């Protein structure tokens, strides 16, 4: 017998012995398994029954009503506004310059202080101008004395002409001298008034009611007529200038012509959270449209009693152009955006919801919108809980402020609790 066959027979014998040993070792475990088969079968039936109950409970949970907040559609008068970005502009802005040159003696205002029209806000050294005024006044009095002498001479010689003591030619000279001195006195009066004006210019007067800015000159400096001392801005009342697209021009003009009062304008802060001042009024619409931007400019005036509006400030502007009587209003949070446009979840009589397309006509305050299509007065719309809804969902309608009931304990929790109670027994 060849060596190959010897090795093959040895391998076969080893495999046969191993198989017999494996069968002998695992025979008791198989018997034990067959002994407990009935118990396993019973447990399998119980498990399948429990799973069936769990599936039924899960299905009931999916069909449970979804608690949501609903609010009715209401009808009310709704003002319609056009919105724009505006710039606050001072009613008057004046850069104060001296009208005479000289040394600055005093500054009589504080930066940021409110000043009144006619207040002396600065003083220039007046001595040179006072001297010039005194000199002009003295010259006027001197010439007035000469005029009085000339008039007296004319009167005396007038009586002597009839007696032939004074020649008629001399009388012409006397009369011309009086006329000359009268003219001289008039010139002196004008010179004195001019000197007085120059003297008064040494007191720098506020030309408007306003707020003083940062001063540019300190006391002791020599100023000229080109020196800027301070800039005054009048902020009560104050202007807001804003622009609207040209397609709104007709609406603004119609509102201006049909309204009894001026159009109301509201200035809001940058976040649109609250008005910055009492209501203003549209004052003027510019007489042309800007061809580069396609907009037209307007200006509104505000009383600004609390100085809430400040020159150079950017504000959001709302121009009221009309009022819609009987507009349908709903909370803004009820409106959802879908691929086909805006919609709301509308509550049906069977306590389900339907997806209702709507057309939003405009905002009403900070939290509501006006709807022009899709709803009628009294329709209930979902305002909270929409993320859990789909068309046809069963809901539990709650009013605003109501708290939904606590969730019922699941069947699994009951079973778990029952097991504990059984163990305790």
TrEMBL record:
Q: Locations of Gly residues compositional bias?
A: 34-55
What protein name applies here?
Answer: Efflux RND transporter periplasmic adaptor subunit
Per its UniProt record, what Pfam families does this chain match?
A: Beta-barrel_RND (PF25944), BSH_RND (PF25917), HH_MFP_RND (PF25876), RND-MFP_C (PF25967)
Q: Where does it live in the cell?
A: Cell membrane
Instruction: Recite the lineage of the species.
Output: Bacteria, Pseudomonadati, Pseudomonadota, Gammaproteobacteria, Lysobacterales
Keyword annotations from UniProtKB, A to Z: Cell inner membrane, Cell membrane, Membrane, Transport
Q: Which SUPFAM superfamilies match?
A: HlyD-like secretion proteins
Please give the Gene3D superfamilies that the UniProt record associates with this protein. 2.40.30.170, 2.40.420.20, 2.40.50.100, Helix hairpin bin (1.10.287.470)
Please tell me the species this chain comes from.
Dyella lipolytica
Q: Where is the Multidrug resistance protein MdtA-like barrel-sandwich hybrid domain?
A: 92-228
InterPro entries, per the entry:
MdtA-like_b-barrel, MdtA-like_BSH, MdtA-like_C, MdtA-like_HH, RND_pump_MFP
Q: Multidrug resistance protein MdtA-like beta-barrel domain: which residues?
A: 237-321
UniProt record similarity statement? Belongs to the membrane fusion protein (MFP) (TC 8.A.1) family.
Domain of life of the native organism: Bacteria
Q: Where is the Multidrug resistance protein MdtA-like C-terminal permuted SH3 domain?
A: 328-385
Q: Where is this region: Disordered?
A: 31-67, 392-425
Q: Which NCBIfam families match?
A: RND_mfp (TIGR01730)
Domain Multidrug resistance protein MdtA-like alpha-helical hairpin as annotated: residue spans: 134-202
